[in-house]
Amino acid sequence: MRLPRWLQQLRLRPRLLLALGLGLLAGLACPTHWSLGTRLLCGWNAGVWSYLLAVLQMMLAADHEHVQRKSVAQADGVARHVAVDSSGLKLAPTDEELADLQVGQVVQLQEVLYIT
Questions:
Q1: Looking at the 3D structure of the chain, how many domains does it have?
Q2: What does the alpha-carbon distance between residue 37 and residue 114 come to, in Å, rounded to a whole number?
Q3: What are the mean pLDDT values of the chain's consecutive 10-residue runs (116 residues total)?
Q4: What is the 3-state composition of the chain as percent helix, strand, coil, each rounded to the nearest 5?
Q5: Residue 46 in contact with residue 27, Cβ under 8 Å?
Q6: 11 phi and psi, to 5 degrees?
Q7: Are residues 56 and 82 both part of a single domain?
Q8: Domain check: are 27 and 50 in the same one?
Q9: The domain containing residue 14 runs over which residues?
Q10: Do residues 57 and 69 share a domain?
């Protein structure tokens, strides 16, 4: 059985899932005599700060090789949305165009888009 797309995205983003869970727990752990808005804000703050700290930890621990491996792994997903043809960029390629696209072309395209 295939998971819905939004659940797949959460599974691929463990830091976001962790922050979502911590924010929900923090909001539920707030005293009940606080107003609903205050409890929601408390949960939101806890979730955002935990996400920021998790991303900071990831950035501090990442080296060049780790980032390169991740970008190559994600290049396959990028190929589904961006393809290179003779006239430049084309969105939503056909399956035939996607089969012709090489991973190196996608990584090169990412570098060009990043520079410009």
A1: 2
A2: 40
A3: 78 87 96 95 96 92 83 62 50 57 52 49
A4: 75, 5, 20
A5: yes
A6: -65, -30
A7: no
A8: yes
A9: 5-61
A10: no
